[in-house]
Amino acid sequence: MLDQQLLQALEQVVGEAGLVRDEQRLQSYLSDWRNAYRGKAALVVRPASTEQVAAVVRLCREAGVALVPQGGNTGLCGGSIPDDSGTQVVLSLTRMTQIRDVDAGNETITVEAGVLLQRLQEAAAEAGRLFPLSLGAEGSCTVGGNLATNAGGTAVLRYGNMRDLALGLEVVLPDGRIWNGLRGLRKDNTGYDLKHLFIGSEGTLGIITAAVLKLYPAIRSRTTAWVALPSSQAAVDLIGRMRALCGDRLTGFELMSRQSVEFVLRHVAGCGELFAEPHPWYVLIELSDTLPDSPLAEMLESGLGAAFEEGEALDAVVAGSEAQVAALWKLREGISEAQNHEGPSLKHDISVPVSRIPAFIAQADERLQQAFPGVRIVCYGHVGDGNLHYNISKPLGSEDAPFKAQAEAIMHLIYDVTAAFAGSISAEHGIGQAKREAASRYKDPLELELMRSLKQTLDPTGLMNPGKVL
């Protein structure tokens, strides 16, 4: 329970509409969407402006109460869930939904942290522009959360992740001061680029309340294909071929194992086999251009023709309509949902150099099957940036409990192989609470020391999202 004086002070700042105290309403703030992480909170506070966020932070700091910033709560690592002490305050940014400015001449948009990613995409489209970040959760995730976790998605190959898409930030610091870094500049060489401290920090160094983000010309032509491959090496060869041929018109290149696709075919309505026989691997290729009459189909045909000749491709389907494009993407985007129907899913969001993807998969697969016979490996991801979602489902016919008991051993095996290939244990999902201990094991000690020094400097009382990242 919060001190009554603090509770009254918070209510004065945000009003009754800005407090969530009802037990039933509280529940959606206290667990993640997968129900993998659950905590308790003394209160949920929903400020409606940056000034209100700053006032809430000051009040909680003076009272020694920890804050857990939260956006759309769609994360996979428990970064926005409070602990089970019941003493922390969840600070939800979901009332901060203003699109403050669209500057078409500067190709920028300024939005508050609670704006849904889908709404941001729509606002860009209304201005005849594109905001390229695209995620499966775009209808419910928020800009603040995207920035706090440095979200990636399916178009990183061409546009980069949120770190690449952000020009300026507004941040409430742990002492309640407001840093106004909302500058829409592509060149600003006046010292340290402070925004990068907060992007990817998961609310442990401050609370992002608004951002200036890059816009791009609208896409006016698109070609999408689903291609069957004999191996993961063929995917690396094919992306090299398509990059050389298409340049930055290559917008998406998604890799999926046969096991991934089988789960989707089994559990996602409206998805069916595209070829007469199954194949070991598949890629979803998307080319796009700002020109309405761009020769994308010819480029795709040329690239795939050469791939067939070299044995890199076995079969292909090219979408002939928007409905077919959506159907191909549904096969890719349904994987995470489909795997949940197969029992517990041990998710590992790793990255390795693109050239080493095939060797990583071969070694990790072999070691897993030797140590944990029968586990089903659901491997898919973004080949262009080396990011694989290397997820594990239990063996057919086995019980959940013994499989869950092996989760840590499976994780360490996968991360050991990742480290051996000079990779990262978190490519786009963040650290949160799920990977905090693993980060201390696999991250360079000097890097951790520098991170702790930054945390101590900005948040000496340790009240900003404690127990996350570090």
Automatic annotation (TrEMBL):
Gene3D superfamilies, sorted: 3.30.465.10, 3.30.70.2190, 3.30.70.2740, Uridine Diphospho-n-acetylenolpyruvylglucosamine Reductase, domain 2, Vanillyl-alcohol Oxidase, Chain A, domain 4
Domain of life: Bacteria
PROSITE patterns: FAD_PCMH
InterPro entries for the chain: FAD-bd_oxidored_4_C, FAD-bd_PCMH, FAD-bd_PCMH-like_sf, FAD-bd_PCMH_sub1, FAD-bd_PCMH_sub2, FAD-linked_Oxase-like_C, FAD-oxidored/transferase_4, Oxid_FAD_bind_N
Keywords: FAD, Flavoprotein
Every FAD-binding PCMH-type domain range: 37-218
Keyword Thylakoid tagged: no
Needed cofactors: FAD
One GO biological process term: respiratory electron transport chain
Family: Belongs to the FAD-binding oxidoreductase/transferase type 4 family.
PANTHER family assigned to the protein according to its UniProt record, in alphabetical order: BLL6224 PROTEIN, D-2-HYDROXYGLUTARATE DEHYDROGENASE, MITOCHONDRIAL
Record-given protein name: FAD/FMN-containing dehydrogenase
Classification of source organism: Bacteria, Pseudomonadati, Pseudomonadota, Gammaproteobacteria, Pseudomonadales
